[in-house]
Amino acid sequence: MQAQEDLLMIAVATSLLLILATTIFLFRHSLKWLLQRVIASATDHLRSSSQIDSLHASAYEISESQDVPDGWFTGAKVFSLERRAIFATTWLCITHISHFQRPGDYLTFNISDYPFFLIMGKDSILRGFHNVCRHRAYTVTRKPVGSSLVLGCRYHGWSYDTKGRLTKAPKFDDIPSFKREENNLYQIWVKTDNNGFIFVNFQGDWSVQDPDMTGLAQFANSAHISSISSMVEFWQAEGDFNWKLASLLFEASNDHPFVGYKPKASLLTRLFDVRYQQQATCQPSSISALRSIPGTNLWCMTVVEPLSATRSSLRRTLYSTTPTDKHCISRKLIDDVHNDFRADLQSLIQKQIDVTASTSSVELNTTMTPSQTRLLEQIEAHLKRERKAGTQIFPAAQSTADKDGNSSASGVAERRKISSPIPSTSHHPQPISQTIGSRTKPTLNSMPRPR
Q: What is the pTM of this model?
């Protein structure tokens, strides 16, 4: 009996020692992690005011030795080159699938004078089209956000369905030589990734490569974003600033807190709830940026739409990682995000004033950031191609075929004629349930023929 009691005491003592050792181990590591968070939080507090200024001067004080080229933020010729070399060839992350809940839902964009829209079809396929009627190049969708199964041009009454097919052409149907199937809307490349992020590409040929989504996938995983996220609210406004200044804003925002919102939570919740980790950031394309809001299940997407060399549109959308009624979200938090958006817009406008008034990059205190350098390299590579070809190259140009099968550039999509037309492509997304994570694949036809 005594031996059994001794063994029991030994077992109990051993268990207590193991529990104590485990507790000490967890406490030491949790305390270390907590101290790191406190120090980081204190540092961030010293670096920013309660109402953050997202366009920090530090974004311009970079160690790169290369100065900003003349006209980089103001030149019309530079902007024209950017249209051909960047916006016509690059995958642009512009929105999230949560905006398209039912057939006919659409969003309208204008990026570098490429007007286009995305629309959900009756077949649950998301498609993108140049927002240009094939008759007289009039706008098809006029609202930034809307829903309609029939898209009508108000100029002469031409109508299209959600697949971009011409369904009505008053005074033309009686003309024997007129063929509706040869006057469908021009489609653009569209890609939706596994987490619902939507990319577009205006390139008109078959050389389009898939975008690099490694960083985007990591961001979505850390912020718990998926295709079931829901849109809470969005804001959009135009201002006199060059779009590349917004790119610098995106880079500066990586090191600064988003808003001064401090959610109430217990110590244990802050220690173990992943929502209370530091904010995650990502710049999936040259015109867009993503940020999570620590302590919440919210995240936002900021997109700049270049309109000219010195004017752009800024759009910020607030999302929830889950289907959520926005009335359940703190009004203060929504107002904080809105105020931050307005502060960013004013900062960009002021920076453009400074850029215009400066006479040199030294006075501006601005040198090329890595992202700006990549843009410059892309422009120089395109210029090299144009010099070799002996003419300007418009990668976004769509081409048509005449009755003899000869291809010629159309003035609808690009508004210019190129010397060596690119074969026309029809971009056919697959059903979302099948293509999430894969690129929309086009088929080659003499004319764009959406399914």
A: 0.72
